[in-house]
Amino acid sequence: MSVTAPQGFEAAGVAVGLKSTGKPDVAVVVNRGPLKIGAAVFTSNRAKANPILWSQQAIQDGGVEAIVLNSGGANCFTGAFGFQTTHMTAEHLAGLLDVSSGDIQVCSTGLIGTGDEVFRQKVLDGTTAAVAALDANGGDAAALAIMTTDSRPKTATVHGDGWTIGGMAKGAGMLAPGLATMLVVLTTDAVLTAEEADAHLRAATRVSFDRLDSDGCMSTNDQVTLMVSGASGVTPETTAFRAALIEVCTDLAVQLQSDAEGANHDIAIEVVHAASEDDAVEVGRSVARNNLFKAAIFGNDPNWGRVLAAIGTTTAPFDPYAVDVDMNGVRVCSNGGPDQPRELVDLTPRKTHVRIDLKEGEASATIYTNDLTHDYVHENSAYSS
Amino acid sequence: MSVTAPQGFEAAGVAVGLKSTGKPDVAVVVNRGPLKIGAAVFTSNRAKANPILWSQQAIQDGGVEAIVLNSGGANCFTGAFGFQTTHMTAEHLAGLLDVSSGDIQVCSTGLIGTGDEVFRQKVLDGTTAAVAALDANGGDAAALAIMTTDSRPKTATVHGDGWTIGGMAKGAGMLAPGLATMLVVLTTDAVLTAEEADAHLRAATRVSFDRLDSDGCMSTNDQVTLMVSGASGVTPETTAFRAALIEVCTDLAVQLQSDAEGANHDIAIEVVHAASEDDAVEVGRSVARNNLFKAAIFGNDPNWGRVLAAIGTTTAPFDPYAVDVDMNGVRVCSNGGPDQPRELVDLTPRKTHVRIDLKEGEASATIYTNDLTHDYVHENSAYSS
């Protein structure tokens, strides 16, 4: 049910030919209220796509009536014409719904530099068609329409005590959040204020999407939006809602990881006993971005030397001669030296666990990444041509 | 002639079985004076190999009698035993040459975590054999013995006005300098003080090896050493010597780039009109480390959107809607939007030139990198296993 699992939402996904395959490429999610509020987090890439520039402004008052998302073109680096396209899309959807364009969020995904007149007309036509197809069970159709190189749609639902959170996500490459990554729409019928929605969303993305770093490449178009209808009439217990939102976000993040372009391994890099949580994240991310480490995992090679070499490039406090490294449960490195023979490590399963013990403090964090494979290179050497 | 091109040096390279292939794996370069001075720069990776820990201490007084280098094992993360091995190697070579062990530099390269008793004995035996084979024409033999995954030895020579600089280098992976990268030995018969040698070396590496970033992975063992014999008796003109040293370093850096593991393209990323040189370097390095950009070049795809997305992750001042990007001479992006059709760009030559105009100031820098290829993944997924 995706984003229409909670009460108060309608959605649709339609095909207008933005994708050469003819698959669905425009999605609309409408908040029927009674609350029409929301929050969003955006890519921290300073090269931001036109829809990001629009949506960042539009979300500031906390009001969200609807969101329109297209695949098949990022509308990024398309100049003033591209921003006008985003603006026209918001105005067009606002007109169809008889609401203010300032309460419309716009997201685009696909090839950077795509956003000509043909693109504009298709997005506008798709918005019209999607509004005509709006359905209280349209969440799955919307999840299909936002896919790019994804092999499958990503949706998640969690039920609370009288309220529900639903979500959909897309993303298979350029997966490295600075604040948020990929396109994600979350919906809830819980009763929240705009400030509560914002706080919950930032807290949940910080420990879910922000811990995913598939390929170190931060996108220009990433946005995670939470829409609140309040249709359940239930004001949730704060801790329970926070936990449920983290559950939905983590579920979607893991789905993104397991569908990452060309990946053979889903790698969880768990950093324990760091001096601070920031240190743990920095160490995990440094390992996650090390191509030699990532290629070694592809080759089922427990090359812990590359793990330590990557830690050495961080600013985190650590003693190279105190660090322990486990791979899939085998202690391959103790106190910065060899321990168990590498032959004992079985790296054939897709799920891979690397545990790094810095022995500096009490903080920990897990970063989720993928291996570097022939298929990753193949898919990304042929994307736009 | 490599490191024996200048007067006052002898060198040798021998095979002792550190490499399973039986190829040469221990090199020694001896400074016969009359000056016995030198300077060195080291990896800024905080996880430093044992030879780095030794050599950093030994170089502090500016005295260098000889350097011993082994391939076939990095002696990194091998604990106190590994440091003892380095110490014993320095003492052993010092004894053979009847000099102080404090004037011996030691370098190791190969798999991290390799440094057991067999390794130790072979390095000591190799040192003995290399000293017995020392020759005033031994530079090329030494250049062969330091190779790991290199497909060919790297040497360079520049003649000045009465003096000469020679050099050899090895390195084909983990090529991303933080201060220096790879193993490099430079020699000169010019008359320099230790302070002059140090200043020249730092200035030259800053604009040569420090601008090479093949795969973003910083090594634990990198060292660039300059040995000064003064045997020509000529005190060089400062500017001319600096320029010649930069020429030798750049020559070796380009040789390293063109032999990078699995690479199909040698990419020069030229950043112009940056607000500062640091900004230009940061922008160039960010693009050089972007896997999506690197895979696109492998696929002969002039995907300038990935260039701009990479710039957006830096802290350098720039306006995304002012940037121009040229690829192999074709202006594919003007003022942050599409310009010439991508079909006009020919990316089939190995030499690739990307020019980024930030339009912020007068500073510029060029970063040298490689593409991300199937062969890179293949070679690095099978290195240690």
TrEMBL record, chains A, B:
Q: Where in the cell is it found?
A: Cytoplasm
Origin, by domain of life? Bacteria
The EC code for this enzyme is 2.3.1.35, 2.3.1.1
Q: Where is this site: Involved in the stabilization of negative charge on the oxyanion by the formation of the oxyanion hole?
A: T109, G110
Q: Where are the residues marked Cleavage as a site? A: A180, T181
Q: Which residues of this UniProt protein bind substrate?
A: T148, K170, T181, E261, N380, S385
Principal place of residence: cytoplasm
Function, as annotated, reads: Catalyzes two activities which are involved in the cyclic version of arginine biosynthesis: the synthesis of N-acetylglutamate from glutamate and acetyl-CoA as the acetyl donor, and of ornithine by transacetylation between N(2)-acetylornithine and glutamate.
Q: Describe the subunit structure.
A: Heterotetramer of two alpha and two beta chains.
Q: Which family does it belong to?
A: Belongs to the ArgJ family.
- Name of protein: Arginine biosynthesis bifunctional protein ArgJ
